[in-house]
Amino acid sequence: MLTLSVAAVFLPSEAAAQTAEGWRKDIDLLTAKIDGYHPMPWAKITKEEFLDKANTLKENLVKWEKESILLEIMKLVASLQDGHTSVLFTNQGQFNLWFPVRIERFPNGIFLVATDSLHAEFLG
Question: Model's pTM, two decimal places?
Answer without folding.
Answer: 0.64
